[in-house]
Design goal:
Layout (H helix, E strand, L loop, with lengths): L5 H9 L5 E4 L12 E4 L9 E5 L2 E6 L2 E5 L2 E4 L12 E4 L11 E5 L7 E6 L9 H8 L3 E3 L6
Antiparallel strand pairs: 1-6, 2-3, 2-10, 3-4, 4-5, 6-7, 7-8, 8-9, 9-10
Length: about 150
């Protein structure tokens, strides 16, 4: 299990599930600035990698492709007064009450084009090898061909 960064751990402690909004795709959500392909060190010739577009998030790792049909955007995850460029998503929600074990921070650390995936696997919960591969390879940078 990967240790959470101090900022992310603090955010997790303050997160309020009631302020996460389910999204079925990103079209019309005003998130076009984060669209693109991302990989470790911005090298999209290898896996793992992810892409963001109108339909949502597509993750590639361990020879698998997983399209997140529904994601949760945590609008107040960074606090009620937060005004920065970072966005927080739960890309693998399990149910309305369980947002899943992966937290995705887009524009991580106020850096455009940087995505961090963090794991929060509960004790005794079996970690999905696909999600482990994604979190271990974090952070991701926008691929060179897609940089704006």
């Amino acid at each position: 299990m990967k240790k959470l960064s101090f900022g992310l751990a603090t955010a997790l402690a303050c997160a309020a599930p009631a302020w996460a909004v389910p999204l079925d795709g990103l079209k019309g959500q005003g998130l076009n600035a984060i669209y693109g392909s991302y990989a470790p060190r911005g090298d999209c010739t290898a896996e793992p990698r992810l892409s963001i577009d109108d339909s949502g998030f597509t993750f590639r790792a361990n020879g698998r492709v997983v399209k997140s049909a529904r994601v949760e955007q945590a609008l107040s995850y960074l606090g009620p007064d937060y005004r920065g460029i970072s966005l927080v998503f739960f890309p693998f929600p399990v149910s309305d009450d369980d947002f899943g074990p992966v937290v995705m921070m887009v524009n991580d650390g106020e850096r455009r084009g940087v995505i961090r995936l963090e794991a929060d696997f509960a004790p005794g919960r079996r970690a999905d090898p696909f999600q482990v591969a994604l979190t271990r390879s974090s952070p991701y940078s926008r691929c060179a061909a897609a940089k704006r």
